[in-house]
Amino acid sequence: MLDTKIVGGTIVDGTGTPGYTGDVGISDGRVVSIGEVTEDAAEIVDATGCIVAPGLIDPHTHYDAQLFWDPYASPSNIHGVTTVIGGNCGFTIAPLEPGDGDYLRRLMAKVEGMDLAALENGLDWDWESFADWIGRLDGNIGVNAGFLVGHCAIRRKVMGADAVGQEASDEQIEAMEQLLAASIEAGGLGFSTGRGNHEDGNGDPVPSRWATDEEILRLCRVTGQHEGTTLEVILNGCLDKFADDEIEFITAMSVEGRRPVNWNVLTVDSAAPDRHPRQLGAGDYAASKGGRVVALTMPTIVGMNMSFGTFCAFNLIPRWGEVLNLPLAERMEKLRDPAVREMMDTISHSEEAGVFRRLADWGGYRIGDTFSDENRSLERRYVHEIAEERGTGHFDTLVDIVLADDLRTVLWPSPTDNDDASWALRQEVWDHPHAMLGGSDAGAHLDRMCGAPYGTAFLRDTLRGRKLVSLERAVQMLTSEPAELFGLRDRGVLREGAHADVFVFDPDEVGCEPIYLRTDLPGAGKRLYSEPVGVTRVMVNGVTTVIDGQQVEGALPGTLIKPGRDTETVLP
Q: Residues 295, 279: contact at Cβ < 8 Å?
């Protein structure tokens, strides 16, 4: 007798082939029969009118810490995600030197927007090795999860405070090589590093930014010595255009490591039509040298709010950090100065601002949460409307508003890339051999964005919106394509012998609710959240984890994705 039989649904198996009506038989966590299934089952799931697809695979998350207090990886799980990849961008919380947790906590709070109180209250920070850390998750998670080993933690473990500000000696690099090898043998899925404009909790460049090319390439070589591993990186040019040396570097990572390298995130905008060809060209160049470089790109526009009160993309606009990194009282004093305002406004519109010029449509910002009686009536209104009423400029109006809230005002920018031309370009990019869907950052930037629902949002757009791809193609992009990049064995498809990671949804309803702020983190922290629509059932390794959009409490059937055991080697 089968454990579960899903009957009457339209099976979209993740391969891109046309869907068909049939049943799925599940036993011992695997799909054992598919199509016409006559065997009896202990549980019958009626999927009439629904799509039965593989569970979604999110290739770029930061659930490394959250899984300790939220083993379900919410809200990704309730949006059909059954497998997540963490440890990206060079940032992990293991290995860890005893007593050094405060440094990594504050780093993660700064670079990944994790709630510091949640990090302080949700974990005990008493592990040392990667094996100790990952072992605490084994058997205690509701999704399948694989974790890269982050360069910053490795460097800090070996070099201590000298990880910031110093190049590593040959002996220190050797120690990092040994530490990375041990971490991969313990279950690390590969190696990630970062050369983006990230700063630690002290305001200094993060440890990975102090590494030489030699250090990073030697760690890539170590990664390639282990079966089933992969590589990931974030560079300064990821959000805009790669410099020539960045293309050479990311290619060298793949060639030296003999593994694919993925990077995050490729933005597509018809107002910058030369950007994405340049970025995808990195993949073409890598291929010509025997490597493989894959860009992650999102199929939906993920809104990201801004604030003058906390670290966000505003801080990355040239010279803005001189103002926004000041203590609150000094920052507010500077923002009251007309000369400072003029400088900030002018630079934000200049060539110097690069990709961050897209943030400078001040009149297009919508006011979110406010914190003063003076601003209460402005919520959900656009700055240009308020400026017209007041007879003030857009930037001056916005700054006046945030000053009245002691800089706590939540600001929602209008997307600049939501035009038909941009969507037509995205449609082309999705079929490029060096691009793949992903980049949610789920588990990070909790007060800024909520990328976790991108799968249900994309399926909604596919079925009832722009309809840029077929349903079968959309499912393939969300399931088997990331599975193939990471070499995930028997995941991302529905076929006999595959792991029973299943996503059942109503095609007439699937989607996501508007994002809202929710207080449910350790230490009474807040995060942005979105509820699913039309999610009938999610199964992980044959166990039901979500029913009608609600997670099943206590269901923890997730597997730690370990290299070699759960993955096969993918060569460039």
A: yes
Cα atoms found within 13 Å of the Cα of residue 254, Cβ hemisphere only:
27
Burial class (CB in 10 A: 0-12, 13-18, 19+), 393: middle
For the full predicted model, state whether its pTM sits above 0.90: yes
- Which residue type sits at 537? R
Report the percent of the chain where pLDDT is more than 90. 94
With pLDDT > 70 as the criterion, what percentage of the chain qualifies?
100
Mention the CATH class of domain 56-302+417-517: alpha beta
Q: What is the pLDDT of residues 352-405, one digit of tens each?
A: 998 888 899 999 999 998 999 999 999 999 999 999 999 999 999 999 999 999
Q: Are 179 and 148 in contact (CB under 8 A)?
A: no
Token readout for 478 is 């969300």
CB atoms within 10 A of CB 69: 15
Is residue 521 within 8 A of residue 120, CB to CB? The reply is no
**What are the residue ranges spanned by the domains of the chain?**
56-302+417-517, 313-412
Output phi, psi for 323, to 5 deg.
-95, -50
The answer to whether the Cα torsion of 21, 27, 33, 38 is positive or negative is negative
Query: What distance in Å separates the CA atoms of residue 185 and residue 166, rounded to the nearest whole number?
Result: 28
